[in-house]
Amino acid sequence: MTNTKQGRCLCGGVKVTVTISEPVFDACHCGMCRRWGGGPGLGVHATAGLKIDGEENVTTFDSSDWAQRAFCKRCGTHIFYRLKNGSFVNVPYGLLDDASDFRFTTQIYVDAKPKSYDFANETAMMTEAQVIAMFNAPPNGLRP
């Protein structure tokens, strides 16, 4: 079963439609996600597609040899994280207009998480090595 959700950036110059298989989100504690957003990256896996309206307002950044991050060039809102090979696309949980029915299910790169915060939710916890093995990713994982 698939589900679609809409979202938009702060200025409204970029609108997205995300197709997902289930309403869940995860948290990434890697250093790059924390640097990019000021805290853990909360993401929704676009399992079956991401449609972008206003693509002329989207700028992508090659954050590693294997991944890109995108943002609205007008207001700076984060739009997606994706693997360059097209096998994985995540959009920020907060980008979606209504994600109140989503469940927080997984935390990744938990071995990179600072000791200064914890989530109260019970979730699956995956280390960097587990994430790398799951995606068969290069060393230093999907999100260095």
Low-pLDDT stretches are 139-144
- The 3D shape can be described as globular
- How much helicity do the residues have? 10-25%
Task: Report strand %.
Answer: 35-45%
Largest sheet: 8 strands, mixed
Average pLDDT, to the nearest integer?
Answer: 91
Care to describe what's here?
The protein is mainly beta and 144 residues long. It has one domain (3-135): Metal Binding Protein, Guanine Nucleotide Exchange Factor, Chain A (Beta Complex), CATH 2.170.150.70. The protein has helices spanning 31-37, 128-135, and strands at residues 3-8, 15-20, 24-28, 41-45, 49-53, 58-62, 67-72, 78-83, 89-92, 103-108, 124-126. The strands form 2 sheets. The protein has an 8-stranded mixed β-sheet with strand order 6-7-8-9-4-3-10-11. A 3-stranded antiparallel β-sheet has the order 1-2-5, with no helix packed on it. The chain is globular, with a radius of gyration of 15 Å.
Feature tags:
single chain, mainly beta, Metal Binding Protein, Guanine Nucleotide Exchange Factor, Chain A, three-stranded antiparallel sheet, 2 helices, 11 strands, 10% helix, disordered C terminus
Question: Layout of helices and strands, plus pairs?
Answer:
Layout: E1 3-8, E2 15-20, E3 24-28, H1 31-37, E4 41-45, E5 49-53, E6 58-62, E7 67-72, E8 78-83, E9 89-92, E10 103-108, E11 124-126, H2 128-135
Parallel strand pairs: 3-10, 10-11
Antiparallel strand pairs: 1-2, 2-5, 3-4, 4-9, 6-7, 7-8, 8-9
